[in-house]
Amino acid sequence: MDSKPIITLLFLISATVIAAQEYVRPPPRKALHFPWSRKHSSHPQQVHISLAGDKHMRVTWITNDKSAPSIVEYGTLSAKYSSVAQGESTSYSYLLYRSGKIHHTVIGPLEHGTVYFYQCGGQGPEFQFKTPPAQFPITFAVAGDLGQTEWTKSTLDHIDQCKYDVHLLPGDLSYADYMQSRWDTFGELVQPLASARPWMVTQGNHEKENIPLLKDGFASYNSRWKMPCEESGSSSNLYYSFEVAGVHAIMLGSYTDYDEYSDQYRWLKADLSKVDRQKTPWLVVLFHVPWYNSNKAHQGEGDSMMAAMEPLLYAASVDIVLAGHVHAYERTKRVNGGKSDTCGAVHITIGDGGNREGLAHKYINPSPEWSVFREASFGHGELKIVNSTHAFWTWHRNDDDEPVRSDQVWITSLLSSGCVAEKRHELRSILVGP
């Protein structure tokens, strides 16, 4: 009997099975439409919260009433506020646009793992949030390059189903791109989530909004999304750090100076010198432009920052680096200097939150030896730091149910693997050097 027909049949069956298992990306979705709704001028809008130092939270909101007070009343019982805090306010102009009054009020001290109810400016709806835990486990939701499309809404809906404590956003928030009203619609879009859990963000290229000779960059971003720069000894809102439940997180700026003579570089050295790995065994870094990227989009854009700062992060034994910018997902092995290194950081690109520019479909083939998983699909990540030695990372496609994990990996901390002790002398030499 001739075996050729049988071989051909087996090949066709195999090809059919493979084709059936291959993930097929759905078509793009439209931008969201935000119908105009009239609100009282002193009604709090675009409410969001962020960590502001040990046991403190910054509450940010906007009112159209320039005389509205920057006070927050809060407590552990609904509608029965035991404390009140006075904050500050700012506003900005951008060509013909005039922002509302932007309020920033720090409240605390707060208890860990506790639900608080609060009201902004003495009127409007009551909001509530839960403070992060004091100890492990802690879960971070991670999504960059959000924008305001139907894919964004899908990403936010998925994150809303996730039991997380803090949201990390590695740049490109609203995609306003000079249209300042889009900052307002973005604030309203994310309010349900951002008013209930702290959002810790850093800037991307779509936050620049620089007009030469007319407008400096990041005016909108810095006015609306104030992060704990002062609390972490930084002179710029574009880079800062914070600590939460055994994690030291560093947010860096891809679009401000980062060479060895820059303020950011000097601040980073000073910040790393203060890290106590016994207190915070996990060291996580976020910035916008990825250093390890096998997608054809944005190739090489992070090379100069990587050349300047990777030796610092490597000496400090950074565990995980999260970036955005490339509209796709990719996870690496532990890497350093362009190749696998068991004492390097795991790099994760997660710029697939739902932006209007669409996905970056084209990859370099064959894939680099350090690339473990890559896919051009919208989604979000969840980083659960279980204890001082282990973390569980998962990535979830928007097109799947939230419980479905499209990629997952257990990550062992560099402290437990001995890398921190091994590089202690190297770190000390770099930190005290010129």
From TrEMBL:
Pfam families: Metallophos, Metallophos_C, Pur_ac_phosph_N. Keywords: Glycoprotein, Hydrolase, Signal, Zinc. Residues 345-401 form the Purple acid phosphatase C-terminal domain. GO terms for molecular function: acid phosphatase activity; metal ion binding. InterPro entries: Calcineurin-like_PHP (IPR004843), Metallo-depent_PP-like (IPR029052), MPP_PAP (IPR041792), PAPs-like (IPR039331), PAPs_C (IPR025733), PAPs_N (IPR015914), Purple_acid_Pase-like_N (IPR008963). It catalyses: a phosphate monoester + H2O = an alcohol + phosphate. The gene is LOC110758155. Its cofactor is Fe cation; Zn(2+). Its EC number is 3.1.3.2. It comes from the Eukaryota. Residues 1-20 form the signal peptide. Residues 44-131 form the Purple acid phosphatase N-terminal domain. This is Purple acid phosphatase. Belongs to the metallophosphoesterase superfamily. Purple acid phosphatase family. Gene3D superfamilies: 3.60.21.10, Purple acid phosphatase-like, N-terminal (2.60.40.380). Residues 139-329 form the Calcineurin-like phosphoesterase domain. The lineage of its organism: Eukaryota, Viridiplantae, Streptophyta, Embryophyta, Tracheophyta.
